[in-house]
């Protein structure tokens, strides 16, 4: 259920400054968002898998923390990232 190398590389190249920029906050949020999408579909298909639900909640919490950090540090980048990922309606 982990992200493939190709998916991760495409997210890094799209949101990072270069291909090795995996530590960037925007890249981390994008990777966590993709992981959340995968875990959500898994939880919908297997409703009794409580460990997947717990890991989904942990990943959501990590993304929430990074989003709060980005909002405090750079509001324009935060708003652009939110619109790029389609997180808020």
According to CATH, what is the topology?
Answer: Helix Hairpins
Mean pLDDT: 93
**Could you say how many structural domains there are in total?**
1
> Describe the biggest sheet?
none
Cα separation of the termini: 27 Å
Structure annotation, total helices: 4
Number of E-state strands: 0
Coarse morphology: globular
* Secondary-structure-derived class: mainly alpha
Sketch the topology as an H/E string, one letter per element.
HHHH
The first-level CATH class name: Mainly Alpha
**Helix coverage percent of residues?**
over 70%
User: What is the strand content?
Assistant: under 5%
Report on this structure.
- This protein is mainly alpha-helical and about 90 residues long.
- The chain has one domain (about 5-85): Helix Hairpins.
- The chain has four helices and no strands.
- It has helices spanning about 5-15, 25-45, 50-75, 75-85.
- Helix 1 (about 5-15) crosses helix 2, helix 2 packs antiparallel against helix 3 and helix 3 runs antiparallel to helix 4.
- The longest helix is centred in the C-terminal third of the chain and has 24 residues, at about 50-75.
- It is globular.
Notable features of this structure?
about 90 residues, mainly alpha, Helix Hairpins, globular
Explain briefly what this protein structure is.
With 89 residues, the chain is mainly α. Helices cover 75% and strands 0% of the residues. It contains four helices and no strands.
């Amino acid at each position: 259920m982990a992200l493939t190398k190709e998916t991760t590389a495409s997210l890094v190249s799209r949101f990072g400054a270069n291909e090795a920029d995996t530590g960037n906050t925007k890249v981390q949020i994008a990777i966590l968002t993709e992981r959340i999408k995968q875990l959500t579909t898994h939880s919908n298909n297997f409703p009794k898998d409580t460990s997947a639900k717990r890991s989904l909640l942990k990943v959501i919490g990590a993304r929430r923390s990074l989003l709060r950090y980005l909002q405090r540090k750079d509001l324009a980048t935060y708003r652009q990232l939110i619109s790029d990922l389609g997180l808020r309606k």
